[in-house]
Every structure is written in C-alpha cells, then in structure tokens.
Design a protein that fits this description.
Elements lengths: L1 H23 L3 E10 L4 E6 L8 E7 L5 E3 L20 E6 L6 E6 L7
Parallel strand pairs: 4-6
Antiparallel strand pairs: 1-2, 1-5, 2-3, 5-6
Length: 115
Amino acid sequence: MARQFWATLFLVFCVFAVSADLAQAADEIRGIIENVDTDKNMITLNFPALPGATLVAPQTFEIPKEASVVDLAGKDMAGRLKDKRVKEGVQATITLAKKGGKVTKVKIHVDPDKK
C-alpha cells in the first residue's frame, strides 16, 4: 500500500515537472538551419523527424534589427546572419516574444571560440 502511494506521488511529481518545463519552453523554437537570406534578414529552420513523431514543415522567420543574434556562450555575433558560422546544417534556437510572436533572439549553436 505504501509503495503504491509513493509511486503515485512520484508520477504526479513527474507530470508537474514535465508540464512546467513545457510551459517555459513554449516561446523557443529549435531546429536546424535550412536557409539564410541575409538580404531579407530571414532564416529558415527545418525540424528533423523523431521516430514516431509527426513531420513538421520548415518555418521561415524574419529577424528584426532589434533582435539579438548570439552564439552558445550568449555573446553577440557581430555579423549577425552574415557571420560565416551561420550556415545550413547548424542548430539554432529562435526565441519569440510572448506578445505579438516577434523574434527577440536567435541563438546559433556554434562554438564561440571559432570564428
């Protein structure tokens, strides 16, 4: 009886922990860079399919001038989307504002020491 109680309590805790994590991550979109258009300040992310998951079509985001473009260490990338490390096949995280859904930050998953 006690074992069942603790197992149920643990399960409830796990459900709350996962739902809290999902609520925080709702404003971030992670994907693999498929295309970068530096003239229009646009970046297209592709989302690799996980086994058993539904395929998601690539999405294109306009990156406003006020949005920050940073590397993994959080350092600003001087060239923004023109930086040579921003290229196809690199993982990126797009952060959207809660209101309006505009892009506020782009984190490019590259080593900050490599330029």
